[in-house]
Every structure is written in C-alpha cells, then in structure tokens.
Amino acid sequence: MDKLFKNVVNIFNQACKKADISKTIHTILKQPKNEIIVNFPVRMDSGEMKLFKGYRIQHNNILGPYKGGFRYHPQVNLDEVKGLAMLMTLKCSLAGLPFGGAKGGVKFNPKDFSISEIEKITRRFVHALGDNIGPNFDIPAPDMGTGAQTMNWMMDTYLNTSGSLDRQCLKGVVTGKSVKVGGTKGRAQATGYGVVMCIEEWAKQHNYKISDKTFIIQGFGNVGSWAAKRLDSLGAKVVAVNDCAGTLYMKEGVPVRQLTEYIAENGSIAGFMGQELLSREEFFSMKADVMIPAALENQIGEKEAHAAQVELIAEGANGPITNRADEILAEKDIQVIPDVLANSGGVIVSYFEWLQNRSNDYWHEHHVLEKLQDKIIKAYHIVHDLSIELDVSKREAAYIRALKNIDEVYNERGIFP
C-alpha cells in the first residue's frame, strides 16, 4: 500500500470514530467508487510507438460531480491517486463546494518528452477516458507536472470528440484553463494565496505580524512560488527555498520574483546568483517561524519532524507529513494547518471557474480572490473552533467536519436501493 494512501486511511478511520460516522458510511467512503486504468499508445516524434498508463480514481460524488487534478509524474501509481482522491472528497466537503473527490494522472516524466509529445499524450489520455469525464460528471484540473496548457488540450480534445451542438456548453469539462479559452483570473495563484491566507489568519489569532516572521518553502512550482510572492507583498521574509537541486539560503531574504523568473528559465534553483546550495537535511533543520512544504507527499517523516525548528507548518502540498511525523510535531508543539484546508484555494477557484463556464460569464480577479478569501477563512475558523471543542489536531478536526457534512447528506438522501 502506498504510504500516502495508508496515512490518509489511518486518519480517516480515526476521524470516523470521533465523528461517530455510521459503519455503513465508513464502509462506502473507505474505498473509491471507481478505479479507472487505461493503457494507451502514443507515437513519438521519432515515429516510435510507446504505451502509457493513465489513472482516474473517482472516490465519491454524493455532494456533486467528481473533482480533482491530473498529474504527470514517473511515480504516479494506483494507491497514490486513491489517497489523493479521498483527500479531494474531504477538501471539497470542508470548503462547502458542491463537488465530490477524484484524482488522476499518467505515469511518465514530462521533462523527458517534447511539447508535441506531451500534447499527444494528453489528447490520447482524454480520448481513452472517453465519457468517464464531463462537466457534470467528473471535472479534472491541473496538478503536478500539468498546467493551463495541459487543460487547454484536454478541453479541446473533449469538445472535438463531443457532439457539435454541445461543444460551446462543455468548456467546464476541466478547470485551470488559460483565461483566453475559458479559464478564470486568479486560478494560477489560488492555491499558493490560499495557503498564505490561512497563515495570515493564524497570525492574527496569535497577535503576530506577518512582516516580522521568517519563512522557508519546500518546492517552488506553482504553489510555492505564488505563496512566496504573496508573502513578499506582505513584507514577510522568505529565507530559504528547497527543491530537487538543494537548499537556497539567504539570510536577508530571497528575491522572490527574481528566483521565480530564474527557475522558469533554468528549471531549478541551482546556480541562482552564484549561491552555494545547502542540503535537504539543512533545510528541514533550519530555524524559522513558518515552513510551507509545497512539493511531493511524504516529505516530512520522523527524521525531519525531529529536526524541525519552526512554529507552524502550512501544508501547500498534499500529504507532505507522515502519520508518525504528525505525532512528533504535536509533541514538539509545532502547529500544522492541514492540506485539506491550507491548499484548498485551488479547488475553490476551480469551482468559480466552473460557475463562470456554466453561465458564460467572466469575473474580475479581485472578485475571485475576495470570494476565495471568504470561503477559505470561513473553513479555517470552522476547523480551528472544532479542534478546540473536541481537543483534537486541526487535521483531525478538518476530517471530522468534512465527514460529518458527507454523513448528513447520505442520511438525508438515503442509500439506493
């Protein structure tokens, strides 16, 4: 069993007991409704034919259409996407969205393929999925290794394999598209901004000034870079960034916008301003106020938790902390804003994009971000208050609230037949 899936299931089981979820609903939710695996051929630029494996896990749709990202990564596997799909169900429920949870991906490293090959892989994947996705059934979005361009190709493929009379009504089949083809302003920065919005609320509760705090960020892709930009605009100091190349440490603060541009051109932090990089271990043992893990899952294990010298960890990534590490952090009184809350900004703004597509409307960016802040701060206080009321961690409180929402819907609707 994949470690992420095991971690999610363990917390899920604990939360079901504390939330007094019925055995029937527990049984329904502990496995996904649908596990779709497709193997599809794609002709490479060289003329060679290669076979790719793709996944779409549809966990639960009692609240609405399945919703969740597609990732392109060599480590994509069935159990990983099952765990991520379960997290999406909880994330959508906690945020009060009319969506269920799903996740998917293709097992390959996009860095090893040309743009034209990635486009062909994307289009063949969508074609292979067929009617397993749709704007009222299952709505994909970007994730690791994918972005707006990937979503544009997915939408275009879906539209061109649908009936001609319906094409203009189907743009909401995916979210995270570029604005010109039906995306929404504010979507690119939504996840990173949402993480910082939660941190800002935490700081208010502790009478802290964000501008007085130091931050370290693991991963500087879409989530990490946008979180850093928002922190920079608030006067906060990002002193370290870690990625696959190592750890960039700058005591006076990393020049965020310059680093973002550099990574876009060079692919990693290696060589930035001639700085000598520190190790991964030095990043996790670095003294700072707040850590934002915004890379892969399972990055903070026992060793990293023991080494941590921060006051708060806000999970920009999905499942970055293992179960045992969670316990160690709690023993050290290091607070954690869990992924199902902290990084829910992406799916919240995806919902706004879906609404705009359905009504053929376009919202101003400030309107999108105001509505994002309203939703994510409301969810933050629900989780915070419940964690105090039940004397549980914020992660358990988030799971409990999300599960209770789902349980209430099942109880009112009943189970067919």
UniProtKB/TrEMBL annotation:
Pfam families reported in the protein's UniProt record: ELFV_dehydrog, ELFV_dehydrog_N
Family: Belongs to the Glu/Leu/Phe/Val dehydrogenases family.
Catalytic center residues: 103
Residues binding NAD(+), per UniProt: 191, 222
Domain of life: Bacteria
Record site feature (Important for catalysis), residues: 143
InterPro entries linked to this entry: Aminoacid_DH-like_N_sf, Glu/Leu/Phe/Val/Trp_DH, Glu/Leu/Phe/Val/Trp_DH_C, Glu/Leu/Phe/Val/Trp_DH_dimer, Glu/Leu/Phe/Val_DH_AS, Glu_DH, NAD(P)-bd_dom_sf, NAD_bind_Glu_DH
Residues reported to bind substrate: 67, 91, 350
Native organism: Lentisphaera araneosa HTCC2155
Gene Ontology BP terms: L-glutamate catabolic process
Gene3D superfamilies, alphabetized: Leucine Dehydrogenase, chain A, domain 1, NAD(P)-binding Rossmann-like Domain
Entry keyword set: NAD, Nucleotide-binding, Oxidoreductase
Protein name per the record: Glutamate dehydrogenase
An example Gene Ontology molecular-function term: nucleotide binding
Annotated ranges, domain Glutamate/phenylalanine/leucine/valine/L-tryptophan dehydrogenase C-terminal: 184-414
